[in-house]
């Protein structure tokens, strides 16, 4: 992706790119520029008590602007070169893309080494906090909320893949990047790894970037990126939302299995409902939940060309239709190190506040689940 097409002016009329010597690229003209002092004041000097999240390239704080508007302030690590690329990508990607299920970028700050993004504030944090948090951060989600989160996320992805111009592949769909507003409506956030897909492009060969547990095997193996990589990640997300657990967990079913591996095993046994989060307490429509999990398995098939488009996924989730399971093939997944004694080995933790790990290299092992 090129970053050399855009620029903007701060309120003092100075080009933002002048704050970033040596950077090939500029920022968009039509984005609001905040001063560092303004955001410092909004977050009480980036006080730890205002911290609401942390990703691979920066920390997110809750802030209040002088006019009373609550915002989420994402401060990128000054020493991260990759963070700078993410910063420019995120601005370039999301500024001109609007959808109810995408987080709205309000503005940014570029002063000295400071690179900060300012987003709308979403009251219920992220899906991983709701599902995996402890104490006050864990939220009880009934089936209505969970199904709406899956549906809204699917609609946001369908918009990015098929309606946005040019089309966009997110590359990092995961629970911590699905943010929830006061009504628990989902909004896709963190576009730092996003890639643009013009109509005449079928795939992009690129460095591997994403999150352990969500990476499609063909992308993890050879860096061949298509929209179907997002479809795969979304399938994993459905399973996490229904099970209430993390795809990075390694003891599903009481044995060393990944979530996707365990789901397929249960599917073959006709026991998929065993995967449902006990916190739902049997208060859910069984047929609908089963359909959602089967859609997840369609999304995570090993061969990318067998996965549905996101618009098809929306239809499969929204309509009470019988899925053609004869067309369903086993999923594929990867593990990023060779286990001993045949068991999957856990990845080295890259971010203590993330539920799963950011990857930037080709994994060692690719596994396809085979039918019994």
Oligomer category:
single chain
The CATH class of the largest domain is identified as Mainly Alpha
Distance between the termini: 43 Å
Estimate what percentage of residues fall within beta strands: 15-25%
CATH architecture name of the largest domain: Orthogonal Bundle
In DSSP terms (H or I, runs of 4 or more residues), the helix count works out at 9
Strand element count: 16
Fourth CATH level, the homologous superfamily of the largest domain: Transferase(Phosphotransferase) domain 1
In the predicted model, the low-confidence regions spanning at least 5 consecutive residues are: 1-25, 200-205, 337-367
SSE class: alpha+beta
Query: What is the spatial order of strands in the main beta sheet?
Result: 1-5-6-4-3-2
Pfam families: PK_Tyr_Ser-Thr
Membrane topology: Single-pass membrane protein
Protein name: Serine/threonine-protein kinase
Region (Disordered): 328-372
Folded structure, characterized:
It is a single chain. 28% of the residues lie in helices and 17% in strands. By secondary structure, it is of the alpha+beta class. The chain has 2 domains: 16-120, Phosphorylase Kinase, domain 1, CATH 3.30.200.20; 127-368, Transferase(Phosphotransferase) domain 1 (Transferase(Phosphotransferase), domain 1). The strands form 6 sheets. Strands 1-5-6-4-3-2 form a 6-stranded mixed sheet, with helices on both faces. A hairpin with a 5-residue loop joins strand 3 (58-64) and strand 4. Helix 4 runs antiparallel to helix 6 (227-243), helix 4 (143-162) runs antiparallel to helix 9 (310-318) and helix 6 packs antiparallel against helix 8. The longest helix has 20 residues, at 143-162. Residues 1-25, 200-205 and 337-367 have low confidence and may be disordered.
